[in-house]
Amino acid sequence: MERQAVVPRPAAGGFPWTLLAALAFLAFNSAMAVYRSNGDQATIVFVATSYVDLVLLSCCLWLHDRAAMGSAWRDRLKASVWTLTTLLTFSFGYIVMGTAGLTLPVALLVWIIAAATGIGAFSAFFDRRGTCRVNEPLDETMLPPV
């Protein structure tokens, strides 16, 4: 007899107070970063796009958690989450490369790491081989209880 992995679903309804608090904290930090940028346009654009990206990412994750399993809406949200995450990774790599004054080998390493992150996230999100990503419970305890 095969075991079926049970994934608990979050309770429907309710207001996401933690999400609201996190977004308020993000808004405050973004405003402070723009204020301290001393009018540097590249920094302001990076902070603004990162803020919009993180707000959209948080909303997509919140909606993804509440979407029905196996629905087309959930798959579209998953694609949006991957796109937003990859955009944030590459924009961070671009800023690191520009502000740190990296040599060519180190700059290539930064881009390779960003690309590997995007490819790894893509394979983790869109694996259609039917493998279950939920860890099966062990039949025996590995360590004695304390």
UniProtKB/TrEMBL annotation:
It holds the Pfam family DUF6490. It comes from the Eukaryota. The chain crosses the membrane at residues 43-64, 76-96, 102-126. Keywords: Membrane, Signal, Transmembrane, Transmembrane helix. The keyword Transmembrane helix applies. Residues 1-33 form the signal peptide. The keyword Signal applies. InterPro entries: DUF6490. This is PGG domain-containing protein. It comes from Brachypodium distachyon.
